Amino acid sequence: MCHTVSVTRARWTSETTPLPPHALAWLSTRIGLGTPLDEVPVTVPESALSEDAFEALEAVAEISLDAGDRLGRAGGLSYLDLIKRRGCGELTIPDAVVLPSSPEEVQEVLRVCVEHDIAVVPFGGGTSVVGGVEALRGGKDAVIALDLARLNRLVSIDPVSRIAVLQAGTTAPDAENLLAEHGFTLGHVPQSFERATIGGFAATRSAGQASSGYGRFEDMVEGVRVQTPAGEWRLGSAPASAAGPDLQQLVIGSEGLFGVITEVALRVRPKPENPVYEGVVVDGWEAGTALIRDLAQRNALADVTRLSDVDETEVALALTGGRKAELLGKYLRFRGVEQPCLVIFGWEGRSRDVTMGATYGHKLVRLGRAMGESWRHGRFNGPRQRDALLDAGVCAETLETATHWSKLPALYDAVRGALKGALGDPVVMCHVSHAYETGASLYFTVLVPRDVEDPVTQWQQAKAAACEAISGIGTITHHHAVGRDHAPYLEAEIGSLGVEVLRALKSTFDPTGILNPGKLM
Ligand SMILES: Cc1cc2nc3c(=O)[nH]c(=O)nc-3n(C[C@H](O)[C@H](O)[C@H](O)COP(=O)(O)OP(=O)(O)OC[C@H]3O[C@@H](n4cnc5c(N)ncnc54)[C@H](O)[C@@H]3O)c2cc1C
Description:
Blueprint: E1 3-5, H1 21-30, E2 42-44, H2 51-58, E3 62-64, H3 67-72, H4 79-84, E4 96-99, H5 103-116, E5 119-123, E6 143-147, E7 154-158, E8 163-167, H6 172-180, E9 184-185, H7 198-204, H8 211-214, H9 217-220, E10 221-228, E11 231-235, H10 248-251, E12 260-267, E13 269-270, E14 276-283, H11 285-297, E15 304-308, H12 310-320, H13 322-334, E16 340-347, H14 352-358, E17 364-368, H15 369-377, H16 381-391, E18 394-404, H17 408-423, E19 427-435, E20 439-449, H18 455-470, H19 487-509
Parallel strand pairs: 4-6, 5-6
Antiparallel strand pairs: 1-2, 3-4, 7-8, 8-12, 9-13, 10-11, 10-12, 14-16, 14-17, 15-16, 15-19, 18-20, 19-20
Helix pairs in contact: 2-5, 12-13, 17-18
Bound molecules: flavin-adenine dinucleotide.
Pfam family, one: FAD_binding_4
Protein name: FAD-binding oxidoreductase
Active site: 443
């Protein structure tokens, strides 16, 4: 028997954020609009979960076999995931959705899944863009999505040490609201902020837009509670320790292969009273990266420090629209800027004076707070507008990497060249999203008309070309994680011995291999 349901969870929000008319006009001139991709009903096969397994799971946690619930956990939110939900390519649909409400229930679910040999995909916000939540069976007869949405509490707060313990299924906005009641913030704001969870951030070594100031997610983790098929594991008793290798770092970035993270102890900071955001423009990508490197190496980065290349700046200014964009263009030309590259600075705790003082000697044009605030207010529009771009027949996707400063120009050229080679004449935009003393990340956004015949292969080929170009120069992922999509490139980065180490750990935590098959390695 098959159930047919219409797709709802494929969209970022229940309402589509339309593209403004000037954005549509720009798209149609620059790349031409493609054929709209309509939403079609998707067929959901009957659950393969045996009656025995269903009853055993039902005895320990809430479980749903509802077709809509299962479809809602069929993959993440990459471009390919989104178009698969619109009928292009095959979706992997879990046989059941299990919703435990406590770490103890998670432990019991794992016990039952080992007994019945069922694959388990830990599911946080489902925002993975690398196939991390694909419901792969790994040779098992059935697979469940283990949705952590009901683990959404603030377990404890220690204001003296500034540590909060949050359950793994807490979404980022809920975490911020819970912490705000105590005057604190986590300061972790990835672009997927509205939907992603604390457990997902820890499982993928996430980086937020303000990570120059607040640190990457792994820098915030003070302790973890993990349920594994081999039992519970708790780590984190001091701010630093010389008691052997840092085992906590094995959990962070383990992408659900070793266990299910159920609680995370996090360093929190006082909520800033008056965050200040500003925009400046530098002349050219080379000058821009030199500025950011200088700031990073002088410990003068703003909490948010983001440099767009010429193409991304052009798009940002074009999308500002109308008379304002025209005047800005004129002003920049008057100031002698030939290749405008936009820099956004945001100060949430760090000193504006320190950053701006360190820019001395670099040529930049200040655009003031209006530009910074406009970026801050629009920073979640990207995910919301992906549905509208699909509706307009556009293939819109992102990918990211990082390398050392000396190799950054080569990495930038290689990825752009690969994407252009694979896609014809796409718009390829790039920004430095995170900067460090020794290097930086590069975040690419691609826009191209969707191939009507075979949109899946169109993007798969482009992504493969970009990954080949990255391999050997930079990391295959700076913050999106490995998932299914980057798994073929992991060995080149960590070596065959590295993969063996991960396999050995996996067999210790998960001897029968139920957890998240087909991901990471
Ligand atoms: C539009 C958009 C923008 C994005 N921007 C950013 C960004 O700025 N920075 C960034 O870092 N990432 C970004 N991402 C990627 C994604 O949001 C992150 O990887 C995020 O950390 C995933 O969190 P989640 O709760 O949605 O996890 P999910 O997508 O549900 O899961 C991610 C992986 O972690 C595993 N997992 C989830 N929860 C647990 C748990 N409790 N225990 C064990 N394993 C678990 C899953 O099995 C899966 O392999 C973006 C994604 C989208 C769609």
